Each structure stands twice: as structure tokens, then as C-alpha cells.
Automatic annotation (TrEMBL):
Residues 66-178 form the 3-dehydroquinate synthase N-terminal domain. It comes from Chiayiivirga flava. Residues 180-324 form the 3-dehydroquinate synthase C-terminal domain. GO terms for biological process: amino acid biosynthetic process; aromatic amino acid family biosynthetic process; chorismate biosynthetic process. Zn(2+) binds at E183, H246, H263. Pfam families: DHQ_synthase, DHQS_C. One of its GO terms (molecular function) is 3-dehydroquinate synthase activity. This is 3-dehydroquinate synthase. Its EC number is 4.2.3.4. NAD(+) binds at G104, V105, V106, G107, D108, T128, T129, K141, K150, T168, L169, A170, T171. It is an enzyme of class 4 (lyase). Transmembrane segments: none annotated. InterPro entries: Dehydroquinate_synthase (IPR050071), DHQ_synth_AroB (IPR016037), DHQ_synth_fam (IPR030963), DHQS/DOIS_N (IPR030960), DHQS_C (IPR056179). The gene is aroB. Keywords: Amino-acid biosynthesis, Aromatic amino acid biosynthesis, Cobalt, Cytoplasm, Lyase, Metal-binding, NAD, Nucleotide-binding, Zinc.
């Protein structure tokens, strides 16, 4: 299969996103790493599957490795400290590179370690989940969680390349694949009605991981993400649209102590709540919320609020979300499929109402 390339146009810090089957083993990406020291960070599910081909591609470098236990619960300051200690042990200098092999958890943590080691060293993303390929590996947001909330400590630090080897998706658990599809749907929902329609026509191909369909979905998603990041790297404006469904979603994740729902699942429910709120406020036709619901359900994503959440508590958590400015609720809503907007000053009652349905 051919390699697709999307560039993130950030001047001197521009970088490529390469998408295709077999990229890790082909190893061209490793030739671009200039310094001697490379720390590969991965997790205990991914490393047995893909670390060997990554280390083979990096032969000739002085290699360190840090294999973390899998899961969002490991995205902690303690694990971050371990990554820095691994760099110290490797005697990594300013020209060292951190390579993240795994999903969003590994990418966020490894990126933050790269951002902080000697005030910032090079960093290569090798995403192995659909979610990381289409979202978290692109754009330079790096972070770890605190008990008080997700991603509260972090930095903007762009990678020098993103290599999405779509062959790695073959081993991804189905639930993780579906969660990644929620973020793919998001790009259609916020800014590309034609892509949304393409997704509706390709549900089966995507769920059965047909390489051409997966590659098209990843490429289109990355094109959108790269465009937004190039225009608004640090989220002063437009980049906030990528948080469609996320203020609701983060509240659901935090309230569930990030155990019960995967991020993509929480985002699926969150997008639906945002669409319903948009309809309730008269911003968008209610049929568009229904169309979104049908697509998410066909992708096997949850489309109803899980039981046991208190609407008032969720609203409280939404206010704490770092996207809200000084307590006033600022939400990403839509005028319909493909047309998301930032809406400030949404009334509490309207939010509580959709949360109680
Ligand atoms: P995300 O990318 O959704 O943020 P994680 O980094 O937590 O999520 O990865 C989700 C789960 O999938 C983790 O348990 C991780 O170890 C596992 N995983 C990641 N990539 C693969 C893969 N290609 N094959 C099998 N399991 C994988
Ligand atoms: Zn997300």
C-alpha cells in the first residue's frame, strides 16, 4: 500500500505525518533521527508486539527503553519522573530523541518528558491506536493527569515526525478501534459534512479494518487536525473546536474516575449531548443530532448517558474543565453537521436539562 503524507505547517517546526502499512519495519523514519541517544517509551501490551521492529530500525543508536503498565491510570507524575530518570540513566544529551510507541497514554507522557528534558528535546510519535493516529499524536499537546483531573500538567511540544503504521491496528482490541472512530466522526461533525457522509457509507469497511478505508479515515482526520494546529497551535481560537463533545466527555470520564468509559466513548456521548443542546437552544436542526446518534450507534459507540451520574455534579465538573474561562460555561456546539461553533454564556438550566434526559 502506498504511503500517504500530511504536513503540519509550523514554519521551522513543520513535520510530516506518514500513514501506511509496514512503516515501522521499513524504518526510513529512523534515518532522520540525528543524535546518538534514543529513549523508546511503550507499554506492556504494545512492546511485545512492535518494539522489536522499532529497535531494529534504530540500530546504531544508543538505546534506552521504558515499558509502562498499560492504561490511562499510569499517566501520572510518578511515571513521568521515571521517564526522566530513564533519560538520565541513558546520559541523554540535548540532541537525544524520545520515541513514543503506543497509544495516547504513552504519547502524552513521552511527549511531556521530551518537552521537559533539558528544556526540550526531539520527539517522534509512533501511534499504534486509531485514536492516537487521528488525534493525540498530532498537534503537540503533551500531559499527565492528576487525581483532580485529566491532563492538568503538561506542555505544548510538537513532535518532529508522526509515523502511523496502520498495520499495527490489526491487533487493536475492537472496543479501542470503536473509541478511535468517535474522534474520526468528530472531524466530520465539526467541519466536514462530506466526510461525515463518507463515514456513513463506510461503516462496515471501517469496522472490518479494510486498509484503504482506514487509511482514508486517518489521512482525512490528520489533514483536518494538521490544518487547525497550523492555524492555531496553542488554542487561542479555532483549535477549541476540536473539543466538540469533550467538555461533556471529560466530566463523564472524571465522574467515573476514568474507569468505566474509554475517552472515545465519553466523547461519543459528549458529542451527542452537545448536538442535543444545540437543538434545544435552536442553533441546529434536531435531525442532525439524530443522524449523529445513528452513526455513533452503527460504530458500536454508546449513545446514551450511563446511569448513576448526577447532572448537577456533571455540570460542576464541566465548569472545572480547563476549557471554561473563569467559571462561565463556554461550549463547543454546532449549527448542524459540519458546522461547529464556540458558544459562550450557555445557561446552566439548558445544560442540566440535556444532562437529565
Ligand atoms: P488511547 O490511544 O486510546 O489514548 P491507550 O494508550 O490507553 O489509549 O491505549 C489503549 C489500549 O490499547 C492500551 O491498553 C494499550 O496497551 C493498547 N494498545 C495500543 N496499541 C495497541 C495495538 N496496536 N495492539 C494492541 N493493543 C494496543
Ligand atoms: Zn479526544
Amino acid at each position: 500500500m502506498s504511503v500517504r503524507e500530511v504536513r503540519v505547517a509550523l514554519g521551522a517546526r513543520a513535520y510530516p505525518i506518514r500513514i501506511g502499512g509496514g512503516l515501522l519495519a521499513a524504518g526510513d523514519w529512523a534515518a532522520e533521527i540525528r543524535g546518538r541517544h534514543v529513549l523508546v517509551i511503550s507499554d506492556a501490551n504494545v512492546a511485545p508486539l512492535y518494539l522489536a521492529r522499532v529497535e531494529a530500525a534504530l540500530a546504531g543508536h544508543t538505546l534506552g527503553r521504558l515499558i509502562l503498565p498499560p492504561g490511562e491510570r499510569e499517566k501520572t507524575l510518578q511515571r513521568f519522573a521515571q521517564a526522566l530518570e530513564a533519560l538520565a540513566e541513558l546520559r541523554a544529551s540535548r540532541d537525544a530523541t524520545v520515541v513514543a510507541l503506543g497509544g495516547g497514554v504513552v504519547g502524552d507522557l513521552a511527549g511531556f518528558a521530551a518537552a521537559c528534558w533539558m528544556r526540550g528535546i526531539a520527539f517522534v510519535q509512533l501511534p499504534t491506536t486509531l485514536l492516537a493516529m487521528v488525534d493525540s499524536s498530532v498537534g503537540g499537546k503533551t500531559a499527565v493527569d492528576l487525581p483532580q483531573g485529566k491532563n492538568l500538567v503538561g506542555a505544548f511540544h510538537q513532535p518532529s515526525a508522526v509515523i502511523a503504521d496502520t498495520d499495527t491496528l490489526a491487533t487493536l482490541p475492537p472496543r479501542e478501534l470503536r473509541a478511535g472512530l468517535a474522534e474520526v466522526v468528530k472531524y466530520g461533525a465539526i467541519g466536514d459534512a462530506a466526510f461525515f457522509a463518507w463515514l456513513e457509507a463506510n461503516v462496515d469497511a471501517l469496522l472490518s479494518r479494510e486498509p484503504a478505508a482506514i487509511a482514508h479515515a486517518v489521512e482525512t482526520s490528520c489533514r483536518h487536525k494538521a490544518g487547525v494546529v497550523a492555524r492555531d497551535e496553542t488554542e487561542q481560537g479555532e483549535r477549541a473546536l476540536l473539543n466538540f463533545g469533550h467538555t461533556f466527555g471529560h466530566a463523564l470520564e472524571t465522574d467515573g474516575e476514568y474507569g468505566s468509559l474509554l475517552h472515545g466513548e465519553a466523547v461519543a456521548i459528549g458529542m451527542l449531548l452537545a448536538a442535543r443542546l444545540s437543538a434545544a437552544l435552536g442553533l441546529a436542526p434536531p435531525q442532525d443530532a439524530e443522524r449523529l446518534q445513528r452513526l455513533l450507534v452503527r460504530f458500536g459507540l454508546p449513545a446514551v448517558m450511563p446511569a448513576g451520574h448526577d447532572p448537577a455534579q456533571l455540570l460542576h465538573l464541566m465548569r472545572l474543565d480547563k476549557k471554561s474561562v473563569s467559571g462561565a460555561l463556554r461550549l463547543i456546539l454546532w449549527h448542524g453537521i459540519g458546522d461547529a461553533r464556540i458558544v459562550a454564556g450557555v445557561a446552566d438550566d439548558a445544560v442540566l436539562d440535556v444532562l437529565s434526559r
